[in-house]
From TrEMBL:
Belongs to the NAD(P)H dehydrogenase (quinone) family. It comes from Sphingomonas plantiphila. InterPro entries: Flavodoxin_fold (IPR003680), Flavoprotein-like_sf (IPR029039), NAD(P)H_dehydrogenase_qn (IPR051545). Residues 11-197 form the Flavodoxin-like fold domain. It comes from the Bacteria. This is NAD(P)H-dependent oxidoreductase. Keywords: Oxidoreductase.
Amino acid sequence: MTTPRDPATIRHLVVLGHPGLDSFNHAIARTYREEVGKLHQVTELDDLYARNFDPLLRRDELPVPGFKPRPDVASSLAQVDAAEMLVLIYPIWFGMPPAIVKGYVDRVLGADFSPEELKADLPSAALQGKRLTIFSTSAASRPWLEERGQWLALKQAFDTYLTRAFGLADCHHVHFDSIVPGLDPRFVEEHLEVVRQTARERATVLRYGDLPPRLLRQPDF
């Protein structure tokens, strides 16, 4: 049996990509952090809109010998390096995450990761072995997204592709659909309970190691 780790040494990086302070996405971030905190693990929040993160990958950020990240990316890379669980929270806009989230992938997660390394199936030195949790939301229903091929495209591009390209240990994706203004508080609370359960499960995996599939709820995708 795996010896439990000291929870105070376990860190989660929560990357939030929604501009609305009163949004359900912000509620997800707060709830996840609160639940992980109850388990005495550490979370750090990177609110991309709050810090006005620049999503544009500049020419001098392309992976070349002597690569040196810009200061904002260097600080983000330090956050990633310290974390074992990367948590992405974003809405689906026009079938994809917001540009600010894609820019985070380009500039931070993909920093100094070359096409040659990608084609050779070499994992990212910064991300290999880390775990990814995604919470996404959409105003449209899940069946509507599936009918138009958007759900499959997103899953392949952000779940399967990123996990394999960067050498992540796993990806657990929970999606909440039909998220619109004026949601019934009971509906919101039901969804936030799913967030709490997911936070507990992911924190447990980090502390105790991989658990038998029967003890873990299956990913919601």
